[in-house]
UniProtKB/TrEMBL annotation:
HAMAP family: HisE. The keyword Nucleotide-binding applies. It is found in: Cytoplasm. One of its GO terms (cellular component) is cytoplasm. It is an enzyme of class 3 (hydrolase). Belongs to the PRA-PH family. This is Phosphoribosyl-ATP pyrophosphatase. It comes from the Bacteria. NCBIfam families: histidine_hisI, PRK00400.1-3, PRK00400.1-5. SUPFAM superfamilies: all-alpha NTP pyrophosphatases.
Length: 107
């Protein structure tokens, strides 16, 4: 599955859970109910777990931690009202810029 498709599907579900605000049985809603600081804290914890996994030779562990990290970043962005499309546009903008710089340095 393409990364954009996976992130888009996850983002849509996260938006639904934030809008519903029903804490029971929803990890996203219960995390959001604890506030922005808690979402950011969870993201930071997952970042540390990802870097620890990165230092091992355990690929499934790293994939799992990277998935947790991206999931929490999706919640963090959604709670701030920022869409993955906004991040994609910034990445594209930088890619275009560095591409030109690369071409210029080669000529
Ligand atoms: N992709 C995820 C996902 N990835 C990770 N997690 C949760 O993130 C938490 C990771 O935190 P930890 O590893 O620290 O585990 P923990 O001890 O349970 O966490 P805390 O008690 O410290 O909060 C776990 O509870 C995982 O279940 C996720 N929870 C939900 N989703 C998806 O998000 C969508 C909405 O989920 P709900 O809000 O639960 O309906 C669904 O599509 C889910 O598949």
């Amino acid at each position: 599955m393409a990364i954009g498709e996976a992130l888009g599907r996850l983002e849509a579900v996260v938006h639904d859970r934030l809008a519903a605000g029903t804490v029971e049985a929803s990890y996203v809603a219960s995390l959001a109910a604890k506030g922005r600081g808690k979402i950011a804290q969870k993201f930071g914890e997952e970042a540390v777990e990802t870097l620890i996994a990165a230092m091992s030779e355990d690929d499934p562990a790293l994939i799992g931690e990277a998935s947790d990290l991206i999931f929490h970043l999706t919640v963090l962005l959604a709670e701030r009202g920022i869409a993955w499309a906004d991040v994609a546009a910034e990445i594209d903008r930088r890619h275009g810029t560095s591409g030109h710089a690369e071409k210029a340095s080669r000529s």
